[in-house]
Amino acid sequence: MDIQNVKFDENGLIPVVVQDDKTSEVLTLAYMNAESLAKTLQTGETWFWSRSRKELWHKGETSGHVQRVVDIKVDCDGDSLVVRVDKAGPACHTGEESCFHIDLRQTQFGAQQGLSLVNISSMELGILLNDLYTLIEERRKERPEGSYTTYLFNSGLDKILKKLGEEAAETIIAAKNGSTKDIVNEISDLLYHLLVLMVERNVKLKDILSELADRAGKANPKYAQENKS
Length: 229
Hints:
The structure is a single chain. It is built from eight helices and six strands. By secondary structure, the protein is α+β, with helices and mostly antiparallel strands. The chain folds into two domains: about 5-85, Roll (Ubiquitin-like (UB roll)), CATH 3.10.20; about 105-220, MazG-like (Helix Hairpins). The strands form two sheets. Strands 2-1-6-5 form a four-stranded mixed beta sheet, covered by helices on one side. Helix 3 crosses helix 6 (about 180-200) and helix 5 (about 155-175) runs antiparallel to helix 6. It is globular. The model is unreliable at about 110-120 (pLDDT under 50).
């Protein structure tokens, strides 16, 4: 492939559909920049650009679930790629074979709202949380020196819980007395420390999603009884 024929967007990225060469199943949608595409071509394994972490990532570097490139094709407009791979394990960080494993028609949102009303910003938030969760997992495994996340994991569960309690209290104070910006900052810190706790206790994002989906639209019997009294 001649990289000169590839059209990157204004951010220097191109969307990439990764497909299982044996089954033709779509595994994931990711992004490459010129450097990650070059490394993919040079090494024969997939490299991508993380839009949230602003860095290259080698698929399977920590999990071992590498994707060996069988074929790469660019579309007729030159602005998207299809990469067929021989995978060494699940493509999704949740353990699913494909990142596309949630049927919106079977979810509470899909049934009530319809696919045309899917909020793209919400999807991007989900991708961002997934990327952050994966990064925290990597920090726990690699323990890079100077990382705050490394400090938390090295300090143990009690320290993580203490910080989580502090962030929860600061969020409450910001909600009571602070500006919208203060609230956003404190909730962001709280979410980060929640993800650290989840990684420490091996709680997956899909577990939370499943629980929230089960609760959607269901009245809590306790509060339902209180409302009757």
